[in-house]
Structures are given as C-alpha cells and as structure tokens.
Specification:
241 residues, two-stranded antiparallel sheet, 11 helices, 69% helix, globular
C-alpha cells in the first residue's frame, strides 16, 4: 500500500503540489500578513495535522518495523547507497553555486564509492577524507538571490519554503531514483529510501514531543534555522534584533 502511494500517487502529488505553489504565490502577492516568516500558517497547520495522521497510521509504524528488523549493516548500506546516488546532483548544485572545489569532491566521492565502495554500499570516500555535502536546488536558488517566499508544510515531504518547494520539483527531476525504470523498481526504491529516512528520524521523535509546547512551531523554527545554516554553509550572518 505504501509502495503504491509513494510511487504512482507521488507523481500525482507533485502535480497537485505544483498547483498549490502557484496558488500560494498568487495569495502572497495580494495578502498582507503580519507573520512574514509563516504567512500561510492556517494552511500549514492543517497540512501538518494531515501529516501527523499519515505518520501515525502508516509511515512511523513501517519505519519502526524496518528499524527493528533490518540489521545495522543493512541500514548503513542503504543510507550509503542513496547518499552515493545523490552525489552527482549535489556536485551539480555546488558547481551552479560557484563552489567548484566542493563539486570536484562530490564527483570524486561518486567515483570512489561507486567502484571501491561497491555501488555506494560502503562510504569509502569519507574514510579517505572526502567530505559529504548536502546541496539542493533550493539552496542554489538562495545563493542566486531568490527569496524564501514564506514557510510551507506539505504532507509526506514535510517542511519547505516556497522557494524550496519549487526547488524540490527540480531536485526530483535531477534525481536518478525518480528516473529508474521499470516503474515497479522505481517505486520500490522510493519506498525504501523514504522509510529509511523516516527510521533515521525516530530517535528525534521523543525529543520533539518532550521539548515542544507547540510541535508545529518547534518543527518550523528548527527547519528554518537549519535551512539558513545550510544556505550559508554553516556560517550565517547575524540577524538584526
């Protein structure tokens, strides 16, 4: 069931999401909002509630089963494999941001881990001192000067800004997993990656539940802070009071 949802239904979801993005752009152009950081808060809280139901009924139970059933080497190899697949797109975004040295490291990681690391199952490149980067097209647009456009929360794919939602569409087209054929294999890979990512977040669930008086606001603020840190490569300028 989850496999079908994350495969064929995810393609439909991307189309609906695109329509939602354009609607948000139009609404943002005609509405004056007091909360500039979260101008679509009513919509976001509704989508957050939907996501909580999906997570409780399907996503989290599957992640818990996977976390308990899969041996640690299997989970490590799965994460390494998908990380290796993403290095080409990460390198492309580093190049588009003018960070050609980092782009060279990303390509080097891809070559080493795809060969010596047996198709990326082993992260040999990190052992050799080649740092793993996390870059996407949303960050690239930010470096180019595109503003965030307000915070958004989407079921399944989680928190984004308006800019990063648009970037997610570009990332999905540059993602080799989305282009895998036959479709049944693509759906299996998407499902496995999604569950593996959710399983890696299980330890954070208890922290969020215990620390947050308002879980939605806690996740929003944490995401925006982390995203700003990513865009400035860990060296964000000080904000005005």
């Amino acid at each position: 069931m989850m496999k079908i949802f994350l495969g064929n239904e995810m393609s439909r979801y991307r189309k609906l999401l695109a329509g939602g993005v354009f609607a948000m752009v139009f609404a943002g152009a005609v509405m004056a909002e007091e909360n500039q950081r979260d101008p679509y808060e009513g919509f976001n809280r509704s989508m957050f509630a939907v996501n909580e139901v999906i997570d409780k009924l399907a996503t989290k139970p599957l992640a818990q089963i996977y976390d308990k059933a899969a041996p640690l080497p299997v989970k490590a190899g799965t994460g390494n494999f998908f990380g290796n697949v993403g290095d080409l797109w990460i390198g492309s975004n580093n190049a588009l941001q003018g960070k050609f040295g980092d782009a060279g490291v990303d390509i080097g990681r891809l070559l080493i881990n795809s060969t010596v690391g047996i198709f990326g199952l082993f992260d040999v490149a990190s052992e050799l001192g080649l740092e793993k980067h996390e870059e996407d097209f949303g960050q690239t647009m930010a470096v180019w000067g595109v503003g965030g456009g307000g915070y958004l929360f989407w079921p399944v794919i989680g928190p984004r800004t308006l800019r990063d939602t648009a970037g997610w569409f570009i990332d999905s087209y540059g993602d080799p997993v989305w282009r895998t054929r036959p479709v049944s294999v693509r759906n299996s890979l998407l499902t496995l990656r999604f569950i593996d990512i959710r399983a890696s977040l299980l330890p954070a669930d208890k922290v969020v539940e215990e620390a947050a008086l308002d879980k939605y606001a806690y996740i929003r603020d944490a995401y925006l802070q982390r995203r700003r840190n990513q865009i400035f490569d860990g060296r964000p300028p000080r904000l005005d009071d």
